[in-house]
Amino acid sequence: MLVQEALSFLEKNQFDLYAVAVNAGPGSYTGLRIGLSLAKGICYASGAKLLAIDGLRAMGICAMKQFPKANICFS
């Protein structure tokens, strides 16, 4: 339902879908598989690019920007 509403919004407002980003982990295996399968289907149907984002790395980068003097370690 939410995906259908998002795609309808894009169509109604004449936005082009350039890419779909998904969390590549960490996360539950089943949840990641379902999300990735949905994203791949949307990309296949629309011709959009698929971006897999490492969620832990993204949070670390945001933390480093918000707290530049903190010692933040992630790999």
What's the helix and strand layout?
Elements: H1 2-12, E1 19-23, H2 29-46, E2 49-53, H3 55-66
Parallel strand pairs: 1-2
What does this molecule look like?
There is one protein chain. Helices cover 55% and strands 13% of the residues. With 75 residues, the chain is α+β, with helices and mostly antiparallel strands. The protein has a two-stranded parallel ribbon with strand order 1-2. Strand 1, helix 2 (29-46) and strand 2 form a beta-alpha-beta unit. The radius of gyration is 16 Å and the shape is elongated. The mean pLDDT is 89.
Descriptive tags:
single chain; alpha+beta; two-stranded parallel sheet; 2 strands; 55% helix; elongated
Shape: elongated
Number of strands: 2
List unreliable stretches of 5+ residues.
none
Task: Give the spatial strand order of the biggest sheet.
Answer: 1-2
Terminal CA distance: 36 Å
Tell me what portion of residues adopts beta-strand conformation.
5-15%
The average pLDDT value, as a whole number, equals 89
Total of DSSP H or I helical runs spanning 4+ residues: 3
SSE sequence, one letter per element: HEHEH
Radius of gyration: 16 Å
Helix content: 40-55%
Taking the sheet with the most strands, its summary is: 2 strands, parallel
Helix and strand composition category: alpha+beta
